[in-house]
């Protein structure tokens, strides 16, 4: 068995690969197509006719705007919290040695390894125990638990590649802690933070499980969509929103991917 | 006269490890001072104590008369050339060199001009727009040097400055550092485990072992008149002679040191001298190093290349000038 680079893949393998990709992405395309259908009660294939009226209908639905605005605010604030906490934690774990360092590293990553439903139940009972009413901030708190992990992972990887003597060099040359952070640490971890932040934003934006446990009466976009599927009227509105969600989450993830892909050269060229 | 750097009973302990143990040290202004020792001997910790990256557990440090304990690195008029250079990868060479002036608030045109001058000082003019990643090891070293010197430090610290360079480059840099130090008149303190480097560059050398200074002196002092077995052996691999052996030649019951190049080897089988057997030869180019066995005592001799030598395993006679046998202070 050989796998030469120059040799072309056998036809069977190509077809299998194409089928795999189609299986993954055809349903998503289907959702896009249904956003233009004229049939509003059920999804019929092929669509009886095509129309763009649902975009206008969606635009004029206040519940859509409420859900979107809530989702964006939750994602933005969770990401901001995660950026601060994740960076601080990554700095502590990678720059210093202390008792329990490995344990902390594991505990920080745990929320993303645990099933979301566990995190959700745990948070819900904790909020109930502490008598905290469900609100915007309980959703933010729930989302921040896993957003921190994403930022932490990105930042810690970059910190590990950043030479520790660079910080000492900066201090040696007369920069105090704040100047060192601003002129040396931040430029070296900036792309990692941007990537981590965008991933965190995207994760928060389409989170369902933790949100159902930590939200009161409010609806984020994914929760709104779940409810909407049960209703019989104006179905394609959901599809229009789905298109928007796909774009809002896909673009940051693509961007984050490109940033971290080039990250090696940015942080590793000192040696 | 105020010392450039003065240690009074300085200790730095890490848990139960005494990295630096009650060290007294005085470095004169304008001196080229070497801290020599094996790894883990405390020389680098001493350098970091001067730079301010470590604080002493006990004792006091002063830099040009000013107390240094508790003063953070960024408020000391001392700069460091790091072993791995620690250049900032996100800045170009000119901004790297100008960094110290930038954080002190020097205006842009002024600091870039100073940085350019510092780059010409280390013979890298016009390299300002490159990234550190585009430079060779020797060039990065020069940039690190320029980045430290541009701040006009009172003391320049160099941590194994030539460790990462190849032999040829290292020899060039040795000469260059020495002449740079003469021109600038700044106190240079450098750490090395290479005794050749310490002897050839420094005005004075401190030999470290186990967190203590074993001996401080000029390179000649250290090399010709080591005071302990450790110094004799570490600096130039001298022959350390046991007291009983020394007594036969000097009448004193003390440890002695005899430099390998002071031993003459002849094929004679009788006469004055130490009877020995040649057990190995090691060709080193300009010289040949001989391993000798004198009745159980292992000795080394270095003879010029081209000397007629007996075959390995043959009996030889060793002679040396009584003056070159140095008696050490260390108690027998």
UniProtKB/TrEMBL annotation, chain A:
GO terms under biological process: transmembrane transport
Q: Which InterPro entries match?
A: Bact_Polyamine_Transport, MetI-like, MetI-like_sf
Q: How does it sit in the membrane?
A: Multi-pass membrane protein
Which domain of life, per UniProt? Bacteria
Endpoints of the signal sequence = none
UniProt lists the family membership as follows: Belongs to the binding-protein-dependent transport system permease family. CysTW subfamily.
Designated name of the protein: ABC transporter permease
The organism encoding this protein is Mesorhizobium atlanticum
From TrEMBL, chain B:
InterPro entries, per database record = AAA+_ATPase, ABC_SmlMolc_Importer, ABC_transporter-like_ATP-bd, ABC_transporter-like_CS, Mo/tungstate-bd_C_term_dom, NA-bd_OB-fold, P-loop_NTPase, Transp-assoc_OB_typ2
Q: Which GO terms describe its biological process?
A: putrescine transport
Q: Which Gene3D superfamilies match?
A: 2.40.50.100, Nucleic acid-binding proteins (2.40.50.140), P-loop containing nucleotide triphosphate hydrolases (3.40.50.300)
By its UniProt entry, which PROSITE patterns does this protein fall under? Answer: ABC_TRANSPORTER_1, ABC_TRANSPORTER_2
Q: Which GO terms describe its molecular function?
A: ATP binding; ATP hydrolysis activity; transmembrane transporter activity
Mind naming one GO cellular-component term on file for this protein?
ATP-binding cassette (ABC) transporter complex
**Name of a matching Pfam family:** TOBE_2
Q: Taking every annotated instance into account, which residue ranges of this chain make up the domain ABC transporter?
A: 5-235
State whether keyword Transport applies. yes
Keywords for this entry?
ATP-binding, Nucleotide-binding, Transport
Q: Which family does it belong to?
A: Belongs to the ABC transporter superfamily.
User: What is the name of this protein?
Assistant: Polyamine ABC transporter ATP-binding protein
